[in-house]
Write a structure and sequence with these properties.
By secondary structure, this protein is α/β, with parallel strands linked by helices. It contains 8 helices and 9 strands. The chain has a 7-stranded mixed β-sheet, with helices on both faces. The chain has a two-stranded antiparallel sheet with strand order 1-2.
Length: 209
């Protein structure tokens, strides 16, 4: 697709995918943009504008075929493919991510869990055995690793990020408390859980006033 899609639209696509999946589970076959807007609390015009970036998918007077739209958005997001993921940092967050089985439903298969703490070596998390970071080059050599999730202290995040990029990994899901925006030849998604909590704190404060 030659057209540049804004990041704001891209960030809304997973939400569309999730709501459409719920509609499928409820047996809904088609839905109008107005009805979808009421469920999602997004304006109908916003929904139409977002989807028109990819061809529209709707029919005047009919609305959207839920199964078709769910499948097409899944194709756009790439969740109908399989993405092999490793987690680097086997602390509480790393183990929680590695043990979350629903990622596989969306095509994200966690195949490796790594740390530098020798006390964690050999520990099992679900069906994974924690390996040492020194084992990473050999593991990547023999496995098609596409994404590295970093659940590390910020002091070591960039060094490890450079290491995985040099090993040929194409994408980083970064949970470290630092933005990794200046590394070339890799797709990076920075996730700051504390930011979400602070937004929640702000909204609680506004709600009380």
């Amino acid at each position: 697709m030659d057209k540049m899609i804004s990041q704001a639209v891209i960030r809304r696509l997973p939400r569309y995918y999730r709501y459409l999946g719920e509609l499928l589970d409820d047996g809904v076959e088609r839905i109008s943009s107005n009805d979808l807007s009421k469920r999602m609390h997004v304006t109908a015009s916003q929904i139409r504008q977002d989807l028109n970036n990819f061809g529209g998918f709707g029919q005047q007077g009919y609305g959207y075929n839920v199964a078709y739209l769910h499948e097409e958005i899944g194709n756009i997001l790439g969740v109908n493919e399989t993405h092999n993921v490793i987690v680097i940092g086997a602390g509480n967050l790393g183990q929680a991510i590695a043990g979350y089985v629903k990622f596989e439903k969306h095509g994200f298969r966690i195949i490796g869990l790594f740390d530098i703490n020798p006390e964690l070596k050999g520990k099992r998390v679900r069906d994974l055995t924690i390996q040492m970071l020194d084992d990473l080059p050999e593991f990547v050599k023999h496995n098609d690793v596409e994404i590295a999730a970093l659940t590390l202290p910020k002091t070591s995040a960039k060094t490890v990020a450079m290491k995985v990029v040099n090993l040929g990994i194409h994408a980083i899901w970064n949970f470290a408390h630092v933005d990794l925006d200046d590394i070339e030849n890799v797709v990076i998604e920075n996730v700051h859980l504390s930011d979400s909590l602070m937004q929640l704190s702000y909204n609680i404060t506004q709600h009380k006033n």
